[in-house]
Specification:
6-stranded antiparallel barrel
């Protein structure tokens, strides 16, 4: 199991339904979900993201802690309001927006 010690931010995630290319099994149920991510507006390279579920909001979106396997590559792109696309292989499975930056420990 992947251990997730130092999240960098809290993101609001909208998991796409299967009909829009999302996961057939729905949102991940593992305590920590590993995938890839892009920051469409920054042109950043594909990065490996870690997602730790916090809660489901009334509108169906998920709040989650997010971190990265190589945090230093992600930090320049993280800001409140930054948009991310979570991917599995070439398929976008979720859209996310950074809602809060967390202090470094």
């Amino acid at each position: 199991m992947i251990e997730f010690k130092e999240p960098l931010a809290v993101a609001e995630i909208r998991w796409l339904p299967e009909s829009e290319g999302g996961r057939a099994s729905g949102p991940p149920s593992a305590p920590v979900y590993a995938a890839t991510v892009t920051f469409p507006s920054s042109g950043a390279a594909l990065l490996s993201i870690l997602v730790q579920y916090i809660c489901t909001q009334p509108d169906g979106t998920t709040l989650a802690n997010i971190g990265f396997l190589v945090p230093d590559l992600a930090r320049p792109h993280l800001r409140v309001g930054a948009e991310l696309q979570i991917t599995e292989g070439p398929t976008v499975v979720a859209h996310a927006v950074v809602r809060e930056l967390l202090p470094a420990e």
